[in-house]
Design goal:
12 helices; Rossmann fold; six-stranded parallel sheet; alpha/beta; 11 strands; 2 domains; five-stranded parallel sheet
């Protein structure tokens, strides 16, 4: 969500297979929505993470395209990448009495009350890419980072030979996606007492912040045999800092949401990187699920995107996932939903 999420999940030789599978699996998971419910065109309030990073821009573009294809009105609320600014938008959206709310939660605890109030008004609430401190919602659509990150963390621990300093750059404190990322990471690392985790701080899903935090860690003189970043922005910033510092042997890095830029930097600089796919295409599933709920159809309480094969972990070598025709900011898999012209409109085509 990334993340702010960051959040998603791919360029690939597996590319064609993944793109096709993405479309097919999304349709099979959520069905094809009709153009209206009865005689009234339904309205969905989409409370986004907002205009804070490229992941969010891609999430929004996919949501708008899906709503148009489904024949629903989409009322957009911009969370501006800030949990405090997003919080009052939930009540504002509910006051407009939409048929459903699709929320990308930025505050695990804070968003709970407004979501429960909306549910009490009979509004369907679909949580997209992150959750709240309650099960009082209609459906949750998200990768399960607490399990999806486990193979990445295990890969990193093995690369480190289960010992040495590990540089950790976190995500957004209090955000459910960050919390679940950490759960998966810690479930592996607690098995290896000889791995010392050095917390470099929280990047808040910002490349520039991650780069600055990593530069500070490098300047401390500590030697790191591995590194972990929560979100694609964190890992990209970490790589940039190592490259700018002229470090010849960059440690293996795990934990990020896979972007085209991650692939490019890793390939060009011979850095071993293992990636989690946290796809902005998830908003397609979220909007489709909302439309089904509005129609009165049964929807799953939880849709785990990590169960879908196109959202699996990506391990080196990464050449088969990188797509040079697209910009660094494209998240792996976005091109399975958006056309080249649509990607160009949000500055993702070179």
């Amino acid at each position: 969500m990334r993340r702010q999420v960051s959040h998603i999940w791919s360029g690939r030789s597996r590319a064609g297979v993944i793109a096709g599978a993405a479309a097919l699996l999304v349709v099979s998971a959520c069905g094809s929505s009709g153009s209206s419910v009865g005689t009234k065109t339904p309205t969905i309030a989409f409370i986004s993470q907002g205009t804070s990073n490229s992941w969010a821009a891609q999430l929004d573009a996919v949501a708008r395209k899906t709503a148009k294809a489904d024949g629903v009105n989409l009322v957009y609320f911009n969370g501006q990448g800030d949990a405090t600014k997003q919080l009052p938008l939930i009540d504002q959206a509910a006051a407009q009495k939409p048929d459903a709310i699709v929320l990308v939660p930025l505050g695990f605890a804070a968003d709970t009350g407004p979501v429960e109030r909306a549910m009490g008004q009979g509004i369907k609430v679909i949580l997209c890419d992150s959750t709240i401190n309650s099960d009082n919602y209609t459906s949750l659509v998200t990768p399960h980072a607490e399990t999806a990150t486990v193979p990445l963390a295990q890969w990193l621990a093995d690369k480190m030979n289960h010992q040495g300093n590990l540089l950790y750059i976190g995500g957004l404190p209090g955000n459910a996606t960050t919390i679940t990322y950490d759960q998966g990471f810690n479930s592996v690392m607690q098995k290896y007492p000889n791995i010392k985790i050095i917390n470099g701080g929280n990047a808040n899903y910002s490349i520039s912040t991650a780069k600055q935090l990593t530069a500070t860690a490098i300047a401390s003189g500590k030697t790191f045999t591995g590194a972990w970043g929560v979100g694609g922005e964190a890992v990209t910033g970490m790589m940039q800092a190592y490259i700018d510092a002229g470090v010849k042997s960059v440690p293996p890095i795990g934990g990020n949401a896979a972007t085209n830029g991650t692939m490019r930097l890793a390939i060009e600089n011979k850095i071993e990187v293992a990636s989690l796919q946290f796809p902005p295409t998830s908003s397609q599933v979220c909007i489709d699920t909302a439309v089904k709920a509005i129609k009165g159809q049964s929807v799953p309480k939880s849709i785990n995107l990590s169960d879908l094969p196109q959202y699996g972990p990506l391990f080196p070598p990464l050449d088969k996932y990188y797509k040079p025709q697209y910009s660094d900011d494209m998240y792996v898999g976005t091109d399975s939903v958006l056309t080249p012209d649509e990607l160009k409109a949000i500055n993702l085509v070179k």
